[in-house]
Amino acid sequence: MGSGGEVLGALTDGPALRICHLYPDLLNLYGDRGNIMVLTQRARWRGMTVAVTGVGLGEPLDPAGADLFFIGGGEDRQQRIAADDLCRHKRGPLQDAVADGAVVLAVCGGYQLVGRYYRPAEGEDLPGVGLLDLWTEHPGPAARRLIGNLVIEVEGMDAPLIGFENHGGRTRLGPGARPLGRVLTGFGNNGEDGWEGATDRRVYGTYLHGPLLPKNPAFADRLIAEAVSRRHPGFALAPLPDANAARAREVMLARLGTPAGKSARAGVE
Ligand code: GLN
User: Looking at the whole model, is its pTM more than 0.90?
Assistant: First the structure.
């Protein structure tokens, strides 16, 4: 698989976490690379071996070479370059990887490109790779951007996801994708229907930047566990002491006036 391979952490007999970072130099808005650092460090703290491979323009993608594929955000110009390359070189391998149980995390511009298509403010539609049943349309250069802190409640998770969004595109889901979560604070997919992100199989798309995973260690662990369980079914992670992250999350939720924890639903319905 392409250039930039790096093996981190002491070699152990335990399971390895193999991450493929798509377009690390092209799609990296708002520190999206921080997501890779968090995945790496949290796996290393458990004594796991971590391999991170960067795959760029024109490079082939090996669907069996990683268990977690990450694609970050970018503005329309970067997205157009990436969309062309994704469809030319990566669509089939990514679809194969997902069918085989790999995890995909796609943020903002990357999220838009794993859907059916993205219609930018200007110019022709960008084709997506069809990992998630959704489409995104930008209402035009004069349209209001959806910017600010974003907090969502995710099914099956005790605590909400916290992040930051900044997008012009409005995303709508088809019947083949479920929303990742319900918006508690912010705009989410389109600022209208109250949903944020999308998921299907082990593919996750979201507008949560910030980057996402430093603020949401439980979600990072969920992705690590799902990725590793592709080759080690039933794999579970030992918990880590996340007191500082928990305190930071409390401060952020209090600042935004967002109720924390499972009871959040009661506050929005
Ligand atoms: N270009 C896209 C939009 O504005 C994505 C922006 C981003 O990744 N932050 O909708």
Answer: yes
